[in-house]
Amino acid sequence: MVKICCIGAGYVGGPTMAVIAFKCPSVEVAVVDISVPRITAWNSDKLPIYEPGLDEVVKKCRGKNLFFSNEIEKHVAAADIVFVSVNTPTKTSGLGAGKAADLTYWESAARMIADVSKSSKIVVEKSTVPVKTAEAIEKILTHNSKGIEFHVLSNPEFLAEGTAITDLFNPDRVLIGGREENAGGLKAIQTLKDIYVQWVPQERIICTNLWSAELSKLAANAFLAQRISSVNSISALCEATGANVTQVSSAVGKDLRIGSKFLNASVGFGGSCFQKDILNLVYICECNGLPEVANYWKQVIKINDYQKNRFVNRLVSSMFNTISGKKIGILGFSFKKDTGDTRETPAIDVCKGLLNDKAQLVIYDPQVPEAQIFKDLSTPKFDWDQLGSTIQITEDAVAQSVKVVHNAYEATKDAHAICILTEWDEFKSLDYQKIYNNMPKPAYMFDGRNVVDVAKLRQIGFIVYSIGKPL
Ligand code: NAD
Ligand code: UGA
Question: Boundaries of each UDP-glucose/GDP-mannose dehydrogenase C-terminal domain copy (predicted)?
Answer without folding.
Answer: 329-454
